[in-house]
Automatic annotation (TrEMBL):
PROSITE patterns: FAD_FR
Ranges for domain FAD-binding FR-type: 5-106
Protein name: Oxidoreductase
Cofactors demanded by this protein: FAD
Keyword Iron applies: yes
Domain of life: Bacteria
Organism this protein belongs to: Amnibacterium setariae
Family annotation (Gene3D superfamilies): Nucleotide-binding domain of ferredoxin-NADP reductase (FNR) module, Translation factors
Alphabetically ordered keywords of this record: 2Fe-2S, Iron, Iron-sulfur, Metal-binding
CDD domains noted in UniProt: FNR_iron_sulfur_binding_3 (cd06217)
GO molecular function terms listed in the Swiss-Prot or TrEMBL record: 2 iron, 2 sulfur cluster binding; oxidoreductase activity
Amino acid sequence: MPDANAWVTAVVVGETRETATARALRFSASGLRPALAGQHIDIRLTAEDGYTAQRSYSLSSAAGADPIEVTVERFEDGEVSPYLVDGVAVGDAVEVRGPIGGWLVWRPSDDRRPVQLIAGGSGVAPLMSMLRTREAARSTVPFRLLYGVTDPDRVYYRDELDRIAADGVQVDLRYSRRVPEGSPLHAGRLTRDDLAALVVPPAEDPSVFVCGPTGFVEAVSDALLALGHPEERIRTERFGPTS
């Protein structure tokens, strides 16, 4: 098997603009081992003067997919994300290594318990990998997605989520600042009552995967524990500073 710590060349072979500040990039990187749903890769950029910068990005493509995909949100003061969102073009090459991670991972061969996915903002990327893996494997394990964003313009994979919902996966979108025009929903952060109403109940013993900014993940995890979800059933991945 290829060494997950070895840097290899990855060529951009496709891209999709997900939002005004986010872009999905598809890479051909034959030197990588097949990924599991939920893993991430490191991407390294090298300037002409030899300066390098690298960041980790969750894979949003299905397990074992070729090409692989990452979905990148632009941070204005970032060293890597502005180039990946607004600069790199199809045919350009970067360096990648991985895939990395074994905690926030779902396999179709796992047990048959239902799966609850909870995403905050760009944290939906590795959970999308799980949804795509489920579909590719023709798994019938029950899945739900609860996806929190600031406003409707920040939703990743909108058309694909609509299709997935039509195929029987429960998809719930909630908005912290602005709801869609005409929506009966109210803007606000996810509450314990929201989670009680929208998450697979503890009695059904779901596997729960939570990914998003640190504050979001901590608040959701605390609420899930208070609702009776066992700690060992909750797997989290966060980004940003700790509280």
